Amino acid sequence: MPHAFNSQEIEDLLAKNNGQYLVFENDQPKFVVLDPVRYPHFVNFDKNRPNVLVTGGAGYIGSHVVLELLAANLNPIIIDNLSNCAVPNLGCPFIVGDLEKTEVLDKVFEQYNIQAVVHLAGSIIVEESVLLPEKYFHNNVVAGINLLNTMLRHGVNKLIYSSSAAVYGSPRYVPIDENHATEPLNPYGETKLIFEKIVNWYVKAHDLNAVMFRYFNAAGADPHGRAGEKHFIETHLIPRVFQVANKELDSVKIFGHDYPTADGTAIRDYVHVADIAKAHALAIAKLEEDTGSFTYNIGTGKGYSVQEIVDKVVEVTERMVPIEQHERRAGDPPILVADSKKAQKELGLELKHSDLDTIIRTAWNWHKQAFAKPAVPVEEKAEETAST
Ligand code: UFG
After folding, report:
1. Phi/psi-derived region of residue 308, left when phi > 0, alpha when psi is between -120 and 50, beta in every other case
2. Ligand 1, CB cutoff 6 Å, lining residues
C-alpha cells in the first residue's frame, strides 16, 4: 500500500535530505534528486568513489546492502518508492521514485555517473501475490524492464539482481542447488524467474553483465544496530514472533502443522542479512573481472522448522510466545534448504553471521529498539497465569 505523505513528512523529508527537486503527482512526492557535490554534508558520499544505484535501498535487505557497499568504498545511491518502509537514514543520496517512471530514472542516471546497479526493489509478499498477481507482474517485471532499458541507454553494464528461492517451488531434492528445476508455486516466484530469464536474454543480446542471487530466508539485523527489518506490513516469521514476544501481538499463527517434517511445521533456510549484503559487494567485484550472467543461491544448507524458530525466540528473548495452529498459507512449499557452495567457491562468500543464535540475537536487539514496547518476562507471565 503506498504511503500517503502529509505536509510535515514532506518538509521533514526535504530538510533531512536537502532535496534539490521535489515532484508531485496526485499530491504525492514522486522523487527527490539530490546533488551530493553541492551538499557535501552527505557524510557517506565521496565523489572519487564509484557510484552504485541501489533500487529498494531503503528496505530491509537494501539498507544492509548500502552499509556493505559503503564498507567496500563504493557510493551507494538509493532509489526507493517507500511503499513498505520508512525514509532511510544512512547518510547517502536518496531518491524517492518508482522504477516505471522513465523520466525519474533518466534524471538519476544523468545526474550520477552510475557504474553498477543493485536491483532489490519489488513486491515480496508470497500470499499477496496469489491474490494480486497483476501487482507482482507490474512491480517485479514491467518496472524491472524499464530499469534494464534505462541502464542500456546510459551505458551501464553491471547488474546485481535479487531473485529468490521462490523460483524453485516444491523441492525435488534438498539441499537445492542452482541446477534444480524451477517451478514456482506462486506469482511472486514466477515474476522473479521471469525477470531472471529476461536478464539472461539481455546479457546475450547487449553489453550487460549480471549476477543474480536466489536468496533463501533473509533474517537477522546489522550486528552494529544500524539497520534491521521494519516493514509497514510485516508477514515474515521471525519479526512476527518478536511482535508476540514484545506484546505487540497476542499470538503467532503457525501456518500448517501437517507438513511432512519432523514436527509438522514448514522448514526454511535462514541466512543472515549481513552475509547476503556482503555477497552483493563481492558480486560487484566479480563483474569488474568477468563478463556474462551468473546465478547463485544464498543460504546456509541448514533448515529450521517454524516451531524451532519459535522455540529459539523464546530462549533468546526469555518472553512468552503463545502460538495458534492455523491452516497452511497458500503458495508455501514445505521445505526450502539451499546448496550455496557455488557462491562460496566462485565469489568467496563466507557465512560469518548465519548461525541461528546470531540471527535471532541481532534481530531481537534491533526489534527491541525499533519497536520499544513494554513486555512481560516469562517468570512474571508464569506468575500471572498461575494466579488466574
Ligand atoms: N509463517 C508462519 N507464521 C507467520 C509467518 C510465517 O507460520 O506468521 C511460516 C510460513 O508459512 C513459512 C515460514 O514461516 O513456512 C517462513 O515464512 P516467511 O513469511 O518468513 O518467509 P517465506 O519462506 O514465505 O518467504 C521468504 C521471502 C521470500 C523468499 C522465500 C524464500 O519472503 O521472498 O523466503 O525462501 F522467496
Report:
1. alpha
2. 124, 126, 164-166, 216-217, 235-237, 240, 252-255, 266, 268, 306, 329, 332, 336
